[in-house]
Amino acid sequence: MRNSLHIKVVGIMLLLILSLMLVLSAFLSRGVARFYLNQFYSQMRTAFADTEFVGELRSLAAAENGTELLTDLLNAYSGELGIEKGTRAYYLLDGETGRLLVSSDGSAELEISPNIVTALSGTEGSEASLFSGYMDVALPFSGGGHRYVICIRDNRQTSAALTREMLTIVIEALLVGFLISVLLSFLLAKTMVRPIQRLTGAARRLSEGDFSDRIPVRAEDEIGILTHTFNDMGARLHDTLQEIESERNKLSAVFLHMTDGITAFSADGILLQFNPAAERLLDRSLNEPGLRYDDLFGDLLPMEEILNRSGGEAASAELKTEHRSLDLFFAPITADQTDGRILTVIHDVTVQRRSETMQREFVANVSHELRTPITNVRSYAETLVDSGSEMPEETVRDFLQVILSESDRMTKLVQDLLVLSRFDADEVEFRMERFDAADSVRRVYEAMRLDAGKHGLKVSAALPASPAWITGDRARIEQVIINLTTNAVRYTPEGGTIEMSASEADGEVRLCVRDTGIGIPAEDIPHIFERFYRVDKARSRAMGGTGLGLSITGEIVKRHGGRIEIESEPGVGTQMTVVLPACPAAAAEAEDGTV
Ligand code: ADP
Question: Which of 74, 133, 154, 315 is the most buried (most CB within 10 A)?
Answer without folding.
Answer: 154
